[in-house]
Design a protein that fits this description.
Layout: H1 2-20, H2 28-49, H3 53-76, H4 93-109, H5 111-130, H6 136-153, E1 161-169, E2 172-180
Helix pairs in contact: 1-2, 2-3, 2-4, 2-5, 3-4, 3-6, 4-5, 4-6, 5-6
Length: 181
């Protein structure tokens, strides 16, 4: 009974998030802000829906690592925003958070389940450029940080595997990625 209660709570949370994420008259920046929150909320809620406490712990680690890396870089890199409102442009925190949630779903529960989240995360990145808050390079760096934090700190629920191999030679540096679905 408790398991069913957790699943119902997660389903209600996720459906409520979906309703909030589609305001009728929101501008693109506000819509991006909402989707940025909805994606990691959905990823986190999915750990309850799947009754997956191990996944929940992995979500905490990847989310925290992503936040520390993203906001650490913001404090070190002094890059002006396109609208000149401040110098916290690099990397895009919104995009980083959205892609962390999407790639968590991908790595933990499979690519097919993550497609809507990746589409939403891409929209978040687009909304940040369109709102004149970030340069494209800021968004790409945020996406890379978000993806890396989940891909390296999350294990597949279904035992899929990501292998990263580095080859450091005096005259070349190589990184090989192998992802088994």
């Amino acid at each position: 009974m408790l398991n069913q209660h957790k699943k119902l709570t997660a389903a209600l949370l996720l459906s409520g998030t979906a309703l909030v994420a589609t305001p009728a008259n929101a501008d693109i920046e506000t819509a991006g802000d909402i989707v940025m929150v909805a994606i990691p909320a959905y990823a986190y809620g999915s750990t309850y829906y799947m009754d997956d406490p191990e996944g929940r712990q992995q979500f905490y680690k990847s989310f925290a690592t992503n936040a520390v890396a993203t906001y650490g870089l913001k404090s070190v890199v002094d890059k002006d925003r396109p609208d000149h409102s401040d110098n916290d442009s690099f990397p895009s925190g919104h995009t980083s958070i959205a892609f962390q949630g999407a790639s968590f779903i991908h790595k933990r529960y499979g690519f097919e389940k993550s497609i809507p989240a990746y589409i939403g995360a891409t929209f978040v990145g687009y909304s940040r450029v369109e709102a004149d808050k970030h340069h494209t390079s800021d968004v790409l760096a945020g996406a890379a940080l978000g993806i890396a934090s989940s891909m390296f700190l999350t294990k597949s629920y279904y035992n899929d595997d990501l292998t990263v191999a580095a080859n450091l030679a005096p005259d070349s540096y190589q990184v090989a990625l192998h992802y088994q679905f």
